[in-house]
Predict the 3D structure of the following.
Amino acid sequence: MSSNYSTPLLTSLPLLSRGKVRDIYTLTPITLLLITTDRLSAYDVTLSTPLPNKGPLLTLLTAHWSRVLTAAIPDLRTHFLTLSLPPQIPSDQRETYLGRSMQVTKLTPFKIEAIVRSHITREAWDSYLLDSTVCGIPFPPGLQEGQPFPDGPIYTPSTKATHPGEHDEDISEAVAAQIIGSTNHARRIKDLSLRIYAVASAYALERGLILADTKFEFGLDEGTGEVVLMDEILTPESSRFWKVEGWRVGARGQVGVDKQFLRDWLKESGGAGKEGVELPEEVVRKTGAMYEEAFRILVQKGVEEVMGELSADAGGEVGV
């Protein structure tokens, strides 16, 4: 598998934006090329150390989830179009971008994160200990960390940090609707988020994983007026996945295959929220191993295998 940690900027396409992790280029007035680099971010900042082959892993897993979810939810649209590379990428650069690139529908992003939680843990647990609420939602006494919420998954939107120094902040559904600018779109985002979560939770559980929480992002297709699921979907970066066999109610640290190990290390080392943190080789290795394990469990194939299929198919569609 090709691993280009820096993922150089393309000169053959106009750059639309460069985020903490993704570079986005304009293909047509209604189509974009989204490239996921190996850059690693946490606590709303980019770290100095990349995570080898993270780009292909997140891209291929998002494509996988797009197919799973749209097959299960007929009225759901995602922005994913194809893993095929556009002809504008020169032949000597195609190996660099294959697997970490997807063509997507251009959308107007809603400036919130649609978070769904099924288990009380981490910041949700800390909030509950403080005043018996999670994101303003009251809960009865006696809950234990790591247990499911009594009445099922909850929807807890937040703001979306877009500039250096900003942080996501929990908001009410009413404030989310104000930011979105439409009560109907806000209701649609909540409805889709909870339905997607139900499908994804069942899918993961069948494979031995608990989806404890995740965040979705949505955008508006200005041409059709549809609310569309966008950005990464149900990856180890955007979700907490716990192994069923290691799940313990009352435990602070569950056996996970996600980014929590990295977040914990950053907090313990004093690097949380600081720009330019260098990661030890062992932390990079363990983080990468967890991401790869999550991929293999969910896709039932390894990243290398899927990349091989993609290369053999000359960048066409593969069975992710």
Summary: The longest strand covers residues 209-220. The CA atoms of residues 185 and 225 lie 10 Å apart.
